[in-house]
């Protein structure tokens, strides 16, 4: 039986918290800061994948080559710089909190385990952004994605509203419903995985990436000193703790669960941020889920091959055409040369 080391830790400031990890994925205690842009590399290394640049970060030690976790779950919580997560493996300061994605890790999983169809789920409920790959299309086909679907789910049987202590939170306010919708999504993901336990027993690793911004919206609406914000922070901390424990148990104590808390992402000056409640229109009207197109990381290689092959063929045609135009049939062509000799013999 695998044993997980549980330590009491308090999260202060933007941070990366390792909520759950098997003993063979060794995270060292310390205050070593990690840059936001390096988190995808850290996730890739925990899953046993190689990265383009070495991660010079002492928080993660090299583990066994042939023993890797079956899943990696990354939850990004926006709008909060502190969460009370008492049962965690380790916590590290997060510096340079720039927006990041796990697209490179998802592409690696899909490339290396294409025949095994692993579960890859990337979800941001507030932005109605969803990306599913492999078996996730079958497992999470009933997962509510749009805000309208999630809010309808809150009124159905098995909703989290029946079990959560709402306190000052309202069931009618837009900002409150956005936060509760994200909590409902976490609950439904766990429920669907419990229904498909066989996914945790295959040989392909699974990847989950979730981005929650309900607290950020509550802070904008009520302020961070409000009772609504404080109650929501306590609820989310308890929900994430249980969410990590449930997924860790479903994968047989062989999963890494990370929580990133970010007060504000450092975005480029050319990008204008807005609240999700300002508009109910999605950016891609042709798709109800606002799906992004799939980017192929071999595009640059294929482009260069096609480009230089066309240039070489064009130069070859020019050189051949020039030589044919300036060719002397009597001396350069063996056909005319043989014809001339035969005429002379006759």
UniProtKB/TrEMBL annotation:
GO terms for biological process: positive regulation of Wnt signaling pathway. Residues 271-346 form the Renin receptor-like C-terminal transmembrane spanning segment domain. Pfam families: Renin_r (PF07850), RENR_N (PF25294). Keywords: Cell membrane, Cleavage on pair of basic residues, Endoplasmic reticulum, Membrane, Receptor, Signal, Transmembrane, Transmembrane helix. It is found in: Cell projection, Dendritic spine membrane; Cytoplasmic vesicle, Autophagosome membrane; Cytoplasmic vesicle, Clathrin-coated vesicle membrane; Cytoplasmic vesicle, Secretory vesicle, Synaptic vesicle membrane. GO terms for molecular function: signaling receptor activity. Residues 14-263 form the Renin receptor N-terminal domain. GO terms for cellular component: autophagosome membrane; clathrin-coated vesicle membrane; dendritic spine membrane; endoplasmic reticulum membrane; external side of plasma membrane; lysosomal membrane; synaptic vesicle membrane. The keyword Hydrolase does not apply. It comes from the Eukaryota. It is a single-pass type I membrane protein. InterPro entries: Renin_r_C, Renin_rcpt, RENR_N. Its main location: membrane. The chain crosses the membrane at residues 299-325. Multifunctional protein which functions as a renin, prorenin cellular receptor and is involved in the assembly of the lysosomal proton-transporting V-type ATPase (V-ATPase) and the acidification of the endo-lysosomal system. May mediate renin-dependent cellular responses by activating ERK1 and ERK2. By increasing the catalytic efficiency of renin in AGT/angiotensinogen conversion to angiotensin I, may also play a role in the renin-angiotensin system (RAS). Interacts with renin. Accessory component of the multisubunit proton-transporting vacuolar (V)-ATPase protein pump. Interacts (via N-terminus) with ATP6AP1 (via N-terminus). Interacts with ATP6V0D1; ATP6V0D1 is a V-ATPase complex subunit and the interaction promotes V-ATPase complex assembly. Interacts with TMEM9; TMEM9 is a V-ATPase assembly regulator and the interaction induces the interaction with ATP6V0D1. Interacts with VMA21 (via N-terminus); VMA21 is a V-ATPase accessory component. This is Renin receptor.
């Amino acid at each position: 039986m695998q044993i997980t080391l549980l330590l009491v830790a308090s999260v202060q400031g933007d941070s990366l918290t390792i909520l759950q990890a098997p003993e063979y994925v060794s995270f060292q205690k310390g205050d070593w800061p990690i840059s936001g842009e390096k988190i995808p590399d850290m996730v890739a290394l925990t899953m046993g994948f190689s990265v383009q640049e070495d991660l010079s970060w002492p928080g993660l030690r090299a583990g066994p080559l042939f023993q890797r976790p079956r899943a990696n779950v990354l939850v990004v919580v926006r709008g909060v710089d502190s969460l009370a997560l008492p049962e965690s493996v380790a916590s590290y300061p997060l510096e340079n909190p720039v927006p990041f994605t796990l697209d490179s890790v998802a592409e690696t999983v899909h490339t290396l385990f294409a025949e095994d169809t692993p579960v890859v789920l990337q979800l941001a409920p507030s932005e109605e952004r969803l990306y599913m790959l492999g078996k996730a299309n079958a497992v999470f086909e009933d997962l509510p994605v749009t805000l309208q679907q999630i809010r309808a789910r809150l009124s159905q049987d098995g909703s989290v509203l029946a079990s959560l202590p709402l306190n000052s939170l309202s069931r009618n306010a837009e900002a409150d419903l956005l936060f509760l919708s994200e909590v409902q999504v976490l609950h439904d993901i766990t429920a669907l995985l419990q229904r498909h336990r066989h996914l945790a027993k295959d040989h392909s690793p699974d990847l989950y990436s979730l981005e929650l911004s309900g607290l950020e919206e509550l802070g904008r609406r009520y302020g961070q000193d409000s009772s609504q914000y404080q109650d929501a922070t306590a609820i989310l901390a308890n929900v994430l703790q249980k969410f990590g424990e449930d997924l860790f148990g479903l994968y047989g104590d062989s999963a890494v669960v990370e929580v990133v808390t970010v007060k504000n992402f450092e975005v480029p000056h050319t990008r204008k941020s807005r609240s999700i409640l300002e508009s109910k229109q999605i950016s891609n009207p042709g798709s109800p889920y606002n799906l992004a197109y799939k980017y192929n990381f071999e595009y640059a290689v294929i482009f260069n091959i096609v480009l230089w092959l066309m240039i070489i063929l064009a130069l070859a045609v020019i050189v051949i055409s020039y030589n044919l135009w300036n060719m002397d049939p009597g001396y350069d062509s063996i056909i005319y040369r043989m014809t001339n000799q035969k005429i002379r013999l006759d």
